[in-house]
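Q: Hi! Curious about what DUF58 domain-containing protein looks like structurally. Here's the sequence.
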Amino acid sequence: MNKRLKTLLIKTRRQVFSEMIGNNPSLFHGEGYDFSELREYQIGDDIRKIDWTITAKLQKPYVKLFHEERELSVVAACMMGGSLYFGTHRIKQELVAEIAAILGYSAVKNGDLFTGAVVSRNVEAVERPTKRLFGVNRFVERIDGASILGKQADYKEGIVQLFRRIKRRSILFVIGDFLAPVDFALLSRRHEVIAVIVRDRFEEHPMSLGQVHLVDPETGATLQTNFGERSVVKYREQIIASDKKLYKHLHKHRIRFVKIYTDEEPFGRLVKLFGGRM
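A: Let's find out. The predicted structure is below.
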C-alpha cells in the first residue's frame, strides 16, 4: 500500500469514527421498529410512514424515521472505466476510492455488513461481506490500484449483472462518473439505490484549448482537433442534455443522488446527503 493511500485511509477513518454530527449514531436509516425521529415529508417518501396525528397538528405532512433493527447490508458498487483516469485536482479514480472508504468505515462503525463490488463491462468481483476494517481497506486498495485504462464501464449491462449477483436487499451505492447512459429500473426494485456521481469541474466547464491531441482512455483511440470556442459550446450543450436525462431517470425511480467533484471533500457531501448524520 502506497503512502498516499495510507494517508487517505487514516484521514477517512478519523473523519468517520471521530466526527459527531447530530444525535443519531447511524448514517443509514432502515425500516425497523425502533423509532428514531420525525421530519417533514419530502417528495419520494413512502406515504405509509406519514404520522397523521402530527401532520394534522402542524398542518404539514411529517414522516416517521426508524433505526434499522436488523443488520443492514451496505454495498459500494464502483463503476470502473478508463474515464475515471482524469482529473485536474486529482484523478476521479482516487475520489471513488475515498468515497468507498467512507461508506465502508461507516458500515463497520454501525455494525452493518459492507460489500464492495467492482463493475466495468460486467461484474469483475464482489468482495465477501465484512464487518472488519481490514476488509474495507482491502477493497479500497483494490479500487485505488485498479488498472482502468482501456476499460469501459457499462452502466446498463454491468448493473443488470449486479442485480443478479447481489441477492440480499441492500443500501446500494453506485459510484461512477455517469458519463454513459444508465438504467436503474431493475436494480431499484430490490435495493435502495443511491447514485454517487464523481466528476472533475473541467469535464463540465472546459476552456478553449486550440489545437489538441486527444486520447480516449477507454478505447485508446486518438484524435487531433481544434477544441475552440464553438467546440466548447457544443460540448457543454451535450453534457447538460445528458445530465438532464440522468436526473430525470433518477427522479423517476426515486433514487437519491449526490455529485462530488475532485476538488471537494466527499465526507461532508455524503453527510449532507444523509441529513447531517454520520
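A: A fun detail: Residues 34-67 form one domain.
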